[in-house]
């Protein structure tokens, strides 16, 4: 109750602060609704984040570069509300939004989904930062726009095009054997309406920092706890990317390919072992849009092939799983002027086909999907309403399957200007989202259940967005309250069956989540001096509501904190930059009955940078001191994070 009261106070304070900021910058102010980033993820039409019907965080090139990260996981962990569930600094990782699980966050690259149909999620450490031009995080349900998995939210990543010749290269090194090299070249083709972008990425790390093994007996002290270096924690990542863009009159299009290859050791906290995992994937996608008068027609498709291999010599295991996905989509949209506002209608369809092969999967792990969707957005000066509806059907081509799974996902969102001042907007939305069972859920042997139902639920949210600016000062803030219910959650349980005892998935889970989000940024610039201070806070109390007779009832979900916060302060003078970044995560429970948890942690990083430039070129050197206070913490059990350490990088760019 105290958190809810505090959050209501934040909502009220944001409104009061809006009027104070308005009077302060009124003399020099520009239109507040023209400020900020533009999003297309929130309603499939271009809107400023201030006018979008739901909360959207946009990270542009400058923010991505400033993070110093080498992967999509690093850059999104830096300044977005995404909680990154890490199995060590270079191990597997997954996104979580609003207290949801990894399989409840949809990841898109240039509008195409990236999740593996067998696992139902994506490891974002395998996506190099060099190929990212922009990242959008849509908070809340979006199945009405994108289909399955968009329960907690959507992470939409965009690759760079080539509007002018550009080349950049970045080399980095750090403690514990970290080395990274990446580069990108992009240029229009002279005399043709085409442009080419090429990128490559190499990254290696030994990951052999020292940690305390609390399970080992120390004969010197007579107590438990032995300090030793991590063994079998190395990683090597390789990636290549190519994109051919088209810009010819009414035609826009792109053809792209991304190849990733990673090899890593699977660190074991209490025992030396040689288990390894390799991830290989090839993704090809194409899109084309043409404008015919007031009508815009977009079509495209994607093809993905991936292989995941696990080896453990001590157990005699060498298994490889392979997946293949193909999708195609088309949509038509038109905009009318109605009563002084812009009304946009969009309708389309999508087809998909997925296949998986693994020694532990049924012989035919094969699924076909189809979807039809539509959106109507009315955008007027002081109000906006967006309504979306989508129908999805998934049929498993298996003799054991009982039939097709179907889901209807509606969503209604609105954005209004409650006062005469344009810098304050109110947002509200309600929508239904769902997640279909993965191939592992349905076809894993033993235990897979072909008759599982999709998880589904409703989310409602409301909030305020503030933007104000003068010649030297810019202020943005947003506060959101939300509540969601999810039913038919898929839970793996150990039980006895006629053919033996093993783990099997069942539709028994129900969860309720109540929470809030608050973010604010203040930017100031005068002459050659600039400063920025910002932060965000997320509270998501996700609770199990499955069975009142069990000890898990009313307890938090596993491995996801109720609270997380991030803050940053950056000071710049000419080409010099200095900054302090903070990350905090609350307790993460490790038992379903709430009996055990990992303690909260707060990590501080210091960042320094200096640059020089000349005619057509620029160079920048950056230095990071991570984990300034040498905090000892783990994001997930038995995977200790690194102690205090240094990282350095040199970036060159040419125009």
Task: Tell me what the structure shows.
The protein has 655 residues and is mostly beta strands. The chain has a single domain (2-168, 202-654), classed as TonB-dependent receptor, beta-barrel domain (Maltoporin, Chain A), CATH 2.40.170. Helices cover 7% and strands 58% of the residues. The protein is built from 5 helices and 35 strands. The chain has a 22-stranded antiparallel beta barrel. A hairpin with a 3-residue loop joins strand 21 (365-379) and strand 22. Helix 2 (61-67) packs across helix 3 (72-79).
- How would you describe the shape? globular
Going by CATH, the homologous superfamily would be: TonB-dependent receptor, beta-barrel domain
- Look up the CATH topology: Maltoporin, Chain A
| Number of helices, counting only DSSP H or I runs of 4 residues or more | 5
List keywords for this structure.
mainly beta; Maltoporin, Chain A; 22-stranded antiparallel barrel; 5-stranded mixed sheet; globular
Q: Strands, helices and their partners?
A:
Layout: H1 2-25, E1 38-39, E2 47-48, E3 56-59, H2 61-67, H3 72-79, E4 83-86, E5 93-96, E6 105-109, E7 112-113, E8 134-139, H4 143-146, E9 153-158, E10 166-174, E11 178-188, E12 194-205, E13 210-218, E14 223-229, E15 235-248, E16 251-265, E17 276-292, E18 295-312, E19 317-338, E20 341-357, E21 365-379, E22 383-396, E23 405-416, E24 424-435, H5 439-443, E25 455-469, E26 473-497, E27 500-526, E28 529-544, E29 563-573, E30 576-585, E31 588-589, E32 597-598, E33 601-614, E34 617-626, E35 645-654
Parallel strand pairs: 6-9
Antiparallel strand pairs: 1-2, 3-8, 4-5, 6-7, 8-9, 10-11, 10-35, 11-12, 12-15, 13-14, 15-16, 16-17, 17-18, 18-19, 19-20, 20-21, 21-22, 22-23, 23-24, 24-25, 25-26, 26-27, 27-28, 28-29, 29-30, 30-33, 31-32, 33-34, 34-35
Helix pairs in contact: 2-3
């Amino acid at each position: 109750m105290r958190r809810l009261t505090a959050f209501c106070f934040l909502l009220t304070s944001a409104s009061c602060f809006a009027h104070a900021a308005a009077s302060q910058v009124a003399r020099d102010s520009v239109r507040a609704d023209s400020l900020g980033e533009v999003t297309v993820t929130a309603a499939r039409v271009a809107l400023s984040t201030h006018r979008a019907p739901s909360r959207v965080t946009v990270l542009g090139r400058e923010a991505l570069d400033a993070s110093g990260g080498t992967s999509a996981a690093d850059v999104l962990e830096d300044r977005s509300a995404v909680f990154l569930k890490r199995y060590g600094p270079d191990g597997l990782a997954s996104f979580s939004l609003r207290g949801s699980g990894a399989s409840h966050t949809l990841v898109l690259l240039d509008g195409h989904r990236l999740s593996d149909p067998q696992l139902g999620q994506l490891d974002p450490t395998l996506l190099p930062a060099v190929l990212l031009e922009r990242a959008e995080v849509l908070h809340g349900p979006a199945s009405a726009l994108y289909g399955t998995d968009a329960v907690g939210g959507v992470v939409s990543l965009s690759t760079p095009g080539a509007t002018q010749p550009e080349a950049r290269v970045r080399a980095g090194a750090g403690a514990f054997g970290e080395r990274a090299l990446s580069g990108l070249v992009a240029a229009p083709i002279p005399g043709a309406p085409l442009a080419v972008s090429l990128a490559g990425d190499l990254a290696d790390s030994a990951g052999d920092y020292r940690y305390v093994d609390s399970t080992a007996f120390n004969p010197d002290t007579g107590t438990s706890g032995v300090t030793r270096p991590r063994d079998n924690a190395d990683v090597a990542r390789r990636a290549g990317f190519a994109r051919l863009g088209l810009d010819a009159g009414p035609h826009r299009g792109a053809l792209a390919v991304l190849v990733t290859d990673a090899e890593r050791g699977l660190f074991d906290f209490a025992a030396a072992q040689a288990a390894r995992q390799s991830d290989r994937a090839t993704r090809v996608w194409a899109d084309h849009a043409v404008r015919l008068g007031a009508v815009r027609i977009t079509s495209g498709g994607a093809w993905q092939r991936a292989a995941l291999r696990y080896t453990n010599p001590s157990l005699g295991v060498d298994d490889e799983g392979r997946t293949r996905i193909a999708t195609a989509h088309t949509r038509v949209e038109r905009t009318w002027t109605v009563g002084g506002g812009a009304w946009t209608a969009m309708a389309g369809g999508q087809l998909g086909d997925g296949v998986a092969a693994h020694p532990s999967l049924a012989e035919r792990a094969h699924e076909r999907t189809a979807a039809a969707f539509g959106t109507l957005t009315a955008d007027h000066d002081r109000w906006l309403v967006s309504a979306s509806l989508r129908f999805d059907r998934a049929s498993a081509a298996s003799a054991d399957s009982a039939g097709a799974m179907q889901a209807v996902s509606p969503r209604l969102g609105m954005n209004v200007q409650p006062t005469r001042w344009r810098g304050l907007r109110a947002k509200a939305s309600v929508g239904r989202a769902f997640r279909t069972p993965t191939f592992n859920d349905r076809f894993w042997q033993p235990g897979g259940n072909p008759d599982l139902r999709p998880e589904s639920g409703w989310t409602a949210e409301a909030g305020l967005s503030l933007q104000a600016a003068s010649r030297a000062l810019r202020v943005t803030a947003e506060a959101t309250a939300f509540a969601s219910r999810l039913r038919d959650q898929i839970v793996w349980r150990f039980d006895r069956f006629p053919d033996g005892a093993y783990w099997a998935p069942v539709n028994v889970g129900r969860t309720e989540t109540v929470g809030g989000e608050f973010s604010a940024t203040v930017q100031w610039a005068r002459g050659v001096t600039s400063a920025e201070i910002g932060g965000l806070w997320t509270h998501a109390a996700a609770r199990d509501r499955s069975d009142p007779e069990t000890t898990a009832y009313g307890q938090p979900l596993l491995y996801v904190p109720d609270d997380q916060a991030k803050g940053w302060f950056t000071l710049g003078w000419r080409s010099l930059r200095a900054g302090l970044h903070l990350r905090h995560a609350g307790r993460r429970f490790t038992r379903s009955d709430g009996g055990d948890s990992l303690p909260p942690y707060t990590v501080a990083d210091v960042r320094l940078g200096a640059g020089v430039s000349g005619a057509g070129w620029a160079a920048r050197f950056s230095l990071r001191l991570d984990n300034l206070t040498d905090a000892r913490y783990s994001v997930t059990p038995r995977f200790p994070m690194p102690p205090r350490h240094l990282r350095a990088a040199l970036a060159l760019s040419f125009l």
